[in-house]
Amino acid sequence: MAFDARFTLTLLLVLACAARTLAAPSPAERETARSLMVDGDRLRSAGDLQSALARYQAAHAIMNVPTTGLALAETQAALGLLVEARGTALLVTGLPAAETEPGVFVSARRSAAALAVKLEPRVCILETTVTPANAGYSLRIDGSEVPSAARALPFRLNPGTHTLRIAAIGYSTEERELVLREGATERLYVMLEAEPAKQASTP
Questions:
Q1: Which of 36, 70, 130, 131 is the most exposed place for a label (fewest CB within 10 A)?
Q2: Tens digit of each residue's pLDDT (9 = 90 or more) over 81-102
Q3: Residue 68 and residue 76: Cα distance in Å, rounded?
Q4: Would residue 183 be called left, alpha or beta, if left means φ above 0 and alpha means ψ between -120 and 50 degrees?
Q5: Cα separations in angstroms, 79 against 23, 89, 163, 192
Q6: CA–CA separation, 59 vs 174, rounded Å?
Q7: Helices (H), 64-164
Q8: Would you say 76 and 122 are in contact if contact means Cβ atoms under 8 Å apart?
Q9: What is the pTM of this model?
């Protein structure tokens, strides 16, 4: 989505209205958010997306309005953080609307909804099947453990390189590295190999 140079100027007016339409941040918080958005816009225009992301995250944490959320989601998407971007965009669409809120809030919600739809087919899906099914295994993706109820179900990931670790008592630990293309659905089959010595010592 193309960056609108008028975004910052619009935000300055919106921040003043936010105190009346939402749970009002303090004047210091509004000024801080304004400054963060200005910095974020400047950094994004200069191509420093990581630094811009940090500013937008902070500004949205303070204001939590559709315009700050949209800027955050757009920057996340530009960095390839598609899962995070879609989540942010969906949260923006769910922000409560006030009766007298500025029109730019309405426009930001619509843009966020469109962004969420656009990102949906770009997110990767990983399906993991582990045998034996009764091994009582644990699954970690990029260091984070997947809840047992979700291990055998489609798991949504960003494009790029991911590491998987499957471990179970009495079996050799399996570690895999996958490179997922944008929008790809990957099916991974893992057969755990028993380690007799460990199984014999397991009650």
A1: 131
A2: 999 999 999 999 999 988 888 9
A3: 12
A4: left
A5: 31, 15, 20, 36
A6: 42
A7: 66-78, 82-93, 103-119
A8: no
A9: 0.81
